[in-house]
Structures are given as C-alpha cells and as structure tokens.
Specification:
five-stranded mixed sheet, 5 strands
Length: about 500
C-alpha cells in the first residue's frame, strides 16, 4: 500500500511535531545549568539598564519579570521556548502567505501543480524541527531567539505589502514596532530592515516613501531604539565600537569561510537547502522580483555573515536567516513530495532527527570524557551552580573583596550562581563586568576560581597580578560516574593592577 502524507490536517501534524520537540526542550531545560551566554543575559535582567556593552537590552528586559521571581533555570527557559514555538507558528503562517502570493500570480504552472498551502507549511515546520541548532535557541535565550520571530514578523508584513493594494495605518504601526524591537534585540536586526527596504523598492509602482504611514513607522522604530542610542551616547559609544571590532574578527582567511559553510549545513541540516533549491528550480521563474526580494530576508544576512566568517564568527548568528528560508524550503519539499521524490526527504529527515537525538542524549549524559578527546564541551553545562555557591561561601568566610576569574566566559556563571558577590574579570579587555562591578582595587584580596575546562596559571608576581595565591579547596564535577571537570578555589592577596606609564 502506497504511503501518503496525512492530508486531512497538516496543521495538526505540524502542531504535534512542535509539541514533541517542546517536551524534549522542557526536559533538557530543567536538567542542565545555564550556559555561558544564558547566564550573561540573565545577569542583564539582574542589572537592568538602558542598554549593555555587547548587546541591546531586550534580551535582559524580557527576562526581568521571571528573574525577579525565581533563579530556577527551567522556569526562566520558558521564555526561549515560547519564542521558538512562536517562530515555528510564524514559519507556518509565512509559508501560507507566500503560497497565496504565488497563486495570485495567475500562472498555469503554479495553479495546477503547486501543493496545498497547508502541506507546504507542514514541510516548512518539519524542516525547522529537524534542524539541530534551533533547538539550542529553544532552550537557551540568546538575542537571536528574539530576532528570529521578529524577522519572520517583518517578512509577514513584507508579504502583506506585496499582496495588498493599500498598506493601512495599522500595518505601518506594526511594521515600525517590529523594526524597533528588532533593534532592541540585536544590532544585526538592521539586516532585516534592509531586506524589507528591498521589498519596498521592488514594488516600484507602489508609492511608499511619500506616505505618512511610512514616516510614522520610522518614527516608532526610532523611538523604540532611543534607549540604546542614549546609553551609548552616555558611554562613549562603546557598544558600537565593540560590535564593529567583533564583527571584523581577526585576520581574514578562506578556510574559515569553507568551515563556516560546512558548519552551517551541519547545524541547520540539508533539508532546508534541498527545499530551497527545489523551490528556486521549480517556482522562481514566477514573480521573480517580488520573490527575490522576499528571499533577501535569508540571503542578505547569510551572505554578510559568510563574508565576515573569514575573520571569525558563530554559527547561531544566521538562525533568523534560516527561519526566513524555511517557508520557501517548505514549498520546495512539498513539491518534491507530491512528485514522489520521497526517499531523499525521508533519508535526510531521519539523519537530522538522529543527529538531534544524539545531541540531546549527549547533553543529558554530560558528553564524553576520555583521553582520546581533548575537550568535552558538554562539561561546561554542569558544576557551575555548585562552584558558584562554594565560591560565595568561601568569599564571605574569608571576608574577601569578591571573586576573580581570568576570562569573561568564566565570570558570567560565577556572577549568576554566586550572586550578589562581585565578580572581577582580570583580563585587560573592557567588558560588561567592568560596568557592573568595576576594577579589582589595588591591594585587594579575592577568591580566584580556576576551572579545568579553561585553565590558567595563577597571576602571581607581575603587574597585573597578586602577591600570592594559595589553594584552599577543590571540587570535582561528576555525571553518571564520569569526571567532567574540576574547580580550584585559591585565596589570592594584594592585587596589583597594571602600572601606569610614566
């Protein structure tokens, strides 16, 4: 008997897939401690400000109500989970809208051969659920967790612009609000604004720049990002300077670009690429200009991050772009399925799901620690709560000025789990910890935390450095019988900062 996709309710099957993934996310969210970025952004909520050194403030603001009520990781992680569910819902709805836009072009090829919009939406959601990296954003809140649904919302408004004869005042207000919130989420939110502008420019016969609604949207977006501009103006524009340097990365080499592309395929899965390719091959010849402009929500940020990857970058930066590609990929995959090219879809879907399940299992097990493996990245998710509480206790018992670490990635977990004990980062680069806790005073005594996953030699006898450091306690972190890491706590005295140039 030939298997057929359950056509009676693809939307229901999409909802079932989302719910199954959400249950797994909840289980993981209550089982592991905060990652370095999660703790850093949770500290944003503890130290409310108009903006922050490395990112705009929304990622902290949105957590503030829960952080004031609880420190439980699982409960705080309800926020990224809801954002992921919202993103999946918007992927489905954007797919339906693109389907309607394409059918409205009145081409015989599309009206006779294009699968139903609900089937296309189901495959779009399926491609996202099977993508490994978005599950990370569903568990841990990052600025990209916020920017993803906002980018999809802007994409939805762009489709409305293409389909409607008139953009209402309400439409302009929603567009302005989405643009402003994107700017409050992450500085790269401007890339979605460029994509929206390209959609406007592609509709040359529809006036927009002379419309009062357009300038109302610009005003709303500008007002919403005013806190970021004001904070940077008061702090010598340090956030913009940092982001420019961070985006430029180190020296540019081609092999990093090749590595970036390979990592992107591994992190988001080939299904999105296959579906996107099939869409371009079979459907792109219709309504080329409007579809190309809508596709810019993917290719503008992806191309920019690919170009910057030669100097370095992180794989999750492209997450909003991949979500914006998913509707087109869903149409392509639904088309391939209807033409009985199903084995390839089944194979890649199964492989991607197996990869996701393997990742979930490794996280719960604590990863793999052995002599053959140089480092265990999963070990980073365990032990910091115990270490933070121990550090807080030792700092109070010994009446120290605070806790010291030698890298900011160690500082965020220490500051979260040892709160409200001050945490001082001893490196020479400026970061958010300098704004929160200041510099360690000359002559100060501090508890130095050294974690085996990122070990440093104790800063002794030089400037900057302590006069002496004494190991006073160590704890080993184990998970299911395997040693994951070790924390050393050292009592360090008489801190001497960098000598001033004479």
């Amino acid at each position: 008997m030939r298997y057929q996709l359950p056509l009676q309710s693809p939307s229901r099957w999409a909802a079932i897939c989302i719910c199954i993934a959400a249950v797994i996310h909840f289980a993981l969210g209550f089982s592991i401690e905060f990652s370095v970025d999660e703790a850093h952004y949770a500290l944003y909520a503890q130290h409310l400000a108009w903006s922050y050194f490395d990112h705009p403030p929304l990622v902290g603001w949105i957590q503030w109500p829960l952080v004031t009520l609880t420190s439980a990781e699982g409960l705080i992680r309800l926020i990224p989970e809801l954002l992921w569910i919202l993103s999946c819902y918007l992927v489905y709805q954007v797919t339906i809208e693109i389907h309607h836009l394409m059918q409205g072009r009145n081409t015989g090829y599309l009206t006779s051969a294009l699968p139903s919009g609900s089937n296309c939406g189901f495959f779009a959601v399926l491609a996202i659920v099977a993508a490994p990296l978005p599950h990370v954003l569903a568990i841990g809140l990052l600025p990209d967790s916020l920017l993803t649904p906002l980018s999809l919302g802007l994409m939805m408004m762009a489709i409305r612009w293409c389909r409607q004869d008139v953009f209402s005042t309400t439409d302009w207000v929603i567009t302005g609000a989405l643009l402003g919130l994107s700017g409050l989420s992450k500085y790269t939110g401007v890339l979605a604004a460029f994509a929206l502008l390209l959609v406007f420019l592609s509709s040359s016969k529809k006036p927009w720049i002379s419309k009062a609604g357009f300038w109302l949207a610009v005003l709303i977006a500008t007002l919403l990002i005013t806190p970021v501009l004001y904070w940077n103006w008061m702090n010598d524009w340090i956030s913009f300077k940092y982001q420019i340097a961070h985006g430029a990365g180190s020296s540019w080499v081609w092999r990093r670009v090749a590595a970036f592309l390979g990592i992107q395929i591994a992190c988001f899965g080939p299904l999105l690429l296959i579906g996107g390719y099939i869409f371009l091959k079979n459907s792109f010849h219709t309504a080329k200009l409007s579809l190309a402009s809508l596709l810019s929500f993917f290719w503008i940020p992806f191309a920019i991050f690919a170009a910057l990857s030669g100097g370095g970058g992180l794989p999750h930066w492209t997450s909003p772009a991949w979500f914006c590609l998913a509707p087109f990929a869903g149409i392509g995959l639904a088309k391939a399925w209807s033409m009985h090219h199903r084995n390839l879809i089944r194979i890649f879907f199964s492989l991607q799901i197996l990869l996701c399940l393997l990742g979930f299992g490794l996280v719960l097990a604590g990863g793999i620690s052995s002599a053959a493996i140089k480092s265990n990245p999963i070990a980073d998710l365990y032990g910091w709560k115990m270490a933070g509480q121990k550090a807080k206790e030792l700092a109070q018992t010994n009446q120290l000025n605070g806790i010291a670490v030698q890298n900011w990635t160690l500082g965020s977990r220490a500051a979260w789990y040892a709160s409200p004990t001050p945490v001082f980062v001893l490196d020479q680069r400026q970061d958010q910890f300098d704004l929160w806790f200041g510099q360690l005073p000359p002559g100060a005594n501090a508890l130095l935390i050294n974690w085996s996953g990122m070990g440093f030699n104790s800063p002794i006898g030089s400037k900057p450095g302590f006069e002496r450091c004494e190991l006073i306690e160590s704890i080993e972190i184990q998970r299911f019988g395997q040693n994951l890491s070790k924390f050393d706590f050292k009592l360090c005295s008489n801190w001497q900062p960098m000598a001033l140039a004479e």
